[in-house]
Prior knowledge:
About 15% of the residues lie in helices and about 30% in strands. It has nine helices and 24 strands. A hairpin with a 4-residue loop joins β18 (about 355) and β19 (about 360-365).
Amino acid sequence: xxxxxxxxxxxxxxxxxxxxxxxxxxxxxxxxxxxxxxxxxxxxxxxxxxxxxxxxxxxxxxxxxxxxxxxxxxxxxxxxxxxxxxxxxxxxxxxxxxxxxxxxxxxxxxxxxxxxxxxxxxxxxxxxxxxxxxxxxxxxxxxxxxxxxxxxxxxxxxxxxxxxxxxxxxxxxxxxxxxxxxxxxxxxxxxxxxxxxxxxxxxxxxxxxxxxxxxxxxxxxxxxxxxxxxxxxxxxxxxxxxxxxxxxxxxxxxxxxxxxxxxxxxxxxxxxxxxxxxxxxxxxxxxxxxxxxxxxxxxxxxxxxxxxxxxxxxxxxxxxxxxxxxxxxxxxxxxxxxxxxxxxxxxxxxxxxxxxxxxxxxxxxxxxxxxxxxxxxxxxxxxxxxxxxxxxxxxxxxxxxxxxxxxxxxxxxxxxxxxx
Length: 420
């Protein structure tokens, strides 16, 4: 009997089997009390694996040729078989002694560039083989937290999980606690929406140092506000220098308008991904003193480690440039909604809230959240000039997003971003 159902974005195949494994199994009793298990791939099961139960587009016949199903019997008796995902495929496990305690694991996958790309995975409970009929149930589950598999194209506001999969955010999206715990980033820029950021896909980590701000003790900012570096450092790093055009209201800092294209001038890189290495090439002792003298940089660069990520996602995090933070700020409202869904750290809305175009005034998404109504200043990885002297650009995360000059020894909040 094959039962198919869906539970909160997980694709589940419940395979109930008489005598062991999947529909069509038989256990044969012999005089020396040995049995066998037969697995038969039904047409319905092959179709479900190929279509992802709606999680993705159905595979073509050519792609179906690269689909396989591994079955592993483990415990007192161990054996493995691989069969193609096609109707009528059969795997038989013979000479299993009665009384053996066994369980089964199964993996459906496709071969892509000589690598296994997981589709479904499952495991049964342990059973003891008896005379007559036995029952073994394998719950086949979609192999990822998200409906988008690793490597698939990501879109703005997608929630990215620590297995590399993702799911599109919507106001009606619901996630399990397990999915929320596995979320690692929200996509805030995808494609080529900004001439300054270029064509790439960027996600912001689910936590930033605003998480450590205590509204009851606003002067205790030792964890939420971190220093960029010592004032004695050299800021003569041309590749980090970004000029900002002044706005029409004559503010010397310029402004990152939330609804228009941020304008940056100068010869510096508008990506923060290489900023630290460029800085260290000039300040040769910085690498050795990262954790002690550069706490803001340390928090961003080691984000994957202190957030418990592993593999490739433990690396590649960095402090955003001023242009990248502008792109994040421009999409902050919906990014905050996605962060709120997964229990992440939302960016503050500032001292006046955010502009509601429908009513023509600034409002708060959550008026009762007093901690959200602070003027939060975030560091960037960009250097600028003020009256002929080099400064660090920091950005206020309020309703317009002011770009302000700051000294390295100042204290601001920090977020970490990454390319996906």
